[in-house]
Amino acid sequence: MRAESYDFLKSIEETPSPSGYEQPVARIVRKRMGKYADVISTDVHGNVTVAINPTAPLKVMLAGHMDQIGFLVNHITDTGFIHVGAVGGIDTAVLPGSRVTIHAKKGPIEGVMGRKAIHLMKPEERNSGKIELADLAVDIGAKDKKEALQHVQIGDPITYQLGLTKLLNERIVSPALDNKVGTFVVMEALRLASAGKLNCGLYAVATVQEEIGLRGARTSCYGIDPQIGIAVDVTHASDYAAIDKRTAGDVQIGKGPVIERGANINPILSDLFIDTATKKKIAHQISAAPGATGTDANAIQISRAGVAAGLISIPNRYMHTQVELCSLEDLEAAAILIAETVKRIDKKMSFIPM
User: Fold this and answer.
1) Residue 71 phi/psi, 5° resolution?
2) How far is residue 224's CA from residue 60's CA, in Å, rounded to a whole number?
3) Which residues, listed in sequence order, are joined to residue 325 by a DSSP beta bridge?
4) What is the pLDDT of residues 95-108, one digit of tens each?
5) How far apart are the C-alpha atoms of 290 and 274, rounded to whole Å?
6) Are the CB atoms for 19 and 178 separated by under 8 Å?
7) pLDDT tens, the chain, 354 aa long
8) Given phi > 0 = left and psi -120 to 50 = alpha, else beta, which region is 193?
9) Of 59, 91, 215, 302, which is most buried with the most CB atoms under 10 A?
10) Mean pLDDT of the chain
11) Element (H, E) at 174
12) Is the dihedral of CA 22, 293, 298, 310 positive or negative?
């Protein structure tokens, strides 16, 4: 991956953006994409839209949500411990022992989510796999509630301790790959497409609040009113222990982006992706999506009178944990696939399934 692109990816991965608090990442997107855009705008919800060739009557929208799961400060005890509320789908089983950061007004405050030591547990506690969020608290080292309130306040967002780590074979680990890699891919696809001639207007959107209900995709798509909409999100890799491929499908890290097929997906658009990948020799995989995908593609498909929706997925291990894992090669291939596909789209093409 080119150095500037990797630096962009690293910067958004290391910047907090829980649902509703995406503004720090939005600022990075606007700053980086200025040199590639004809127009950049931010709407009242915080969606950032980067457009090229915006006067074209045919509009293609790319959507990658920039929000991540996290927590909010919900209650502070008299002894200075902080109880939290979940933002998005939190897996409580991975919380004990977590390092977290409270993104307070005066600056970041580090903390930990501790748990009663195993030595102090009753036998039935040791053998219970159930962990309730209400039973856990963030310890920032405060002596009491008064001291804690000098540093944090109710409603402050919290994330796992952020960072981007490189592993072997161009693989990366971060607690927020879902779905800042989607934001990265749609912006990279627009960057690649901007170097050539397009027969459509291209709108790359860093959407907000996907993790709590696909909200940003719904409002931004309504505003842009595209004929074609392509979402980029992560999907479950099934190439490690305990994953049943009979239900999860066969999706592997490093084998290319996943082209989704199913009810949420326009069949002409998915065929165009597959044809482009084949002709351009772009590594890819295919996955079945029998119903609504639970991604921005779902909101895009049913916007206004309906949109020809597509979904490109990035294989991801350990989703919604502190150690999500993806491949840089898959990210690059996804951006190239989308850019090459968009270049083939013009107003003569019909996406009405017949």
Assistant:
1) -145, 165
2) 9
3) 173, 317
4) 999 999 999 999 99
5) 18
6) no
7) 999 999 999 999 999 999 999 999 999 999 999 999 999 999 999 999 999 999 999 999 999 999 999 999 999 999 999 999 999 999 999 999 999 999 999 999 999 998 888 898 888 777 777 899 999 999 999 999 999 999 999 999 999 999 999 999 999 999 999 999 999 999 999 999 999 899 999 999 999 999 999 999 999 999 999 999 999 999 999 999 889 999 999 999 999 999 999 999 999 999 999 999 999 999 999 999 999 999 999 999 999 999 999 999 999 999 999 999 999 999 999 999 999 999 999 999 999 999
8) alpha
9) 215
10) 96
11) strand 171-174
12) positive
Q: Please, are residues 195 and 12 in contact by the beta-carbon 8 Å criterion? A: no
Choose, from 13, 210, 211, 340, the residue flagged as catalytic.
Answer: 210
Angstrom distance (rounded) from CA 314 to CA 179: 9
Phi-psi region of 175 (alpha: psi -120 to 50; beta: other; left: phi over 0): alpha
* SS3 state at 270: helix
Residue 170: phi, psi to the nearest 5?
A: 60, 30
Strands 107-113 and 98-104: antiparallel
Q: Which domains does the chain have, with CATH numbers?
A: 3-68+176-343 (3.40.630.10), 70-160 (2.40.30.40)
Dist CA 335 CA 290 (whole Å): 25
Encode pLDDT of 46-86 as tens digits: 999 999 999 999 999 999 999 999 999 999 999 999 999 99
**Euclidean distance between CA atoms 96 and 114, whole angstroms:** 5
Residue 337 contacts residue 276 (beta carbons within 8 Å): yes
3-class DSSP assignment, residue 140:
coil
Instruction: State the Cα–Cα distance between residues 200 and 106, nearest whole angstrom.
Output: 45
What token pair was written down for 266?
A: 């326009």
The DSSP H or E segment spanning 96 is none
The structure tokens listed for 4 are 């500037």
Q: Answer yes or no: 210 catalytic.
A: yes
Residue found by looking up tokens 């692109």 in the block: 5
| Token pair of 349 as six digits | 């093409």
